[in-house]
Design goal:
Blueprint: E1 2-3, E2 7-11, H1 17-26, H2 36-45, E3 48-53, E4 58-66, E5 74-82, H3 89-104, E6 109-111
Parallel strand pairs: 5-6
Antiparallel strand pairs: 1-2, 2-3, 3-4, 4-5
């Protein structure tokens, strides 16, 4: 678990997947929808994180990392979804996920793909 004054990031609990899938649906203009099965697979891999507002512990988003490289020389930052926009939760989340990748996974690189059609992973 990592936190700033605004948010806390921790591994996703399966009980939060319904809300997470609603966040994805609301942001379907920008991201591809994952099925519950896909989310559960990512939970097993250890790369699924939930973002909570510290003031009231409300779930406000999630981050997906792909941790398939056993040496963790590079980690894919696949997705970030924030339900309450314009409050700095996304900026804080990116800072914290970088810290998690460097500290917990000892990675050398964090990478992401950007697609012109706005929909991908």
């Amino acid at each position: 678990m990592e936190q700033t004054q605004k948010i806390t990031i921790k591994k996703t609990d399966p009980k939060d997947l319904n809300k997470i899938m609603v966040f994805e649906k609301r942001n379907s203009e920008f991201i591809q929808q994952y099925s519950r099965t896909q989310h559960l697979e990512l939970l097993k891999s250890g790369g699924h994180f939930s973002i909570f507002k510290r003031a009231n512990n409300k779930l406000v988003g999630h981050i997906i990392l792909v941790l398939d490289n056993k040496k963790r020389e590079a980690i894919e930052f696949r997705r970030i979804v924030i339900s309450e926009k314009g409050l700095g939760y996304g900026s804080d989340s990116i800072k914290l996920i970088k810290k998690i990748c460097l500290k917990n996974y000892k990675t050398k690189k964090i990478w992401l793909d950007i697609y012109s059609d706005k929909k991908s992973n």
